Amino acid sequence: MAGQLNDFMKELPQLAGAEVVDSIQDNFRTESFFGTPWAPRVVQKGNDGKAILVQSGRLRRSFQVKTLGLVITIFTDVPYAQIHNEGGTIQGTAEVEAYTRHQYEMNEVSTPGAKKEKWKKEKVGTSQVRAHTRQINLEIPQRQFMGEHPKLDLRIKALIEAGLDNIFDS
């Protein structure tokens, strides 16, 4: 029994870390922090109905567990994770490089007498946009996905109790 307890204590930090990462994934799935809903997304063309905080999925997939003895560290290398988890304001100046803007118009390309009209978008011109700077003042609402919470404490406590019951009840 002492050997089983020792083995459980060695693997407990990794198990608890996995439980924390699972809770983060649950928060992304429910778009809430343990039941407290996130601020809704600002609806823009093309993002209506998409999951909140999921553009490419990079943030959601990025969480990792590192253990050292009984110390557990959950981390991500995504630079925008903190501003989304805590909320805040992004202020500064963005540099926009020069680029070419294309102008388009819709032209009918159906054959004469066709039952259904066909339209095609065709490029009618271009213009050069010079390099410039733009002031940014962007308010990011808090959409917490990780952090301390009593429900997370209960999940980890249940994990520990299940492991100990498994050792002492066998």
TrEMBL record:
It comes from the Bacteria. InterPro entries: Phage_virion_morphogenesis (IPR006522). This is Phage morphogenesis protein. The lineage of its organism: Bacteria, Pseudomonadati, Bacteroidota, Cytophagia, Cytophagales.
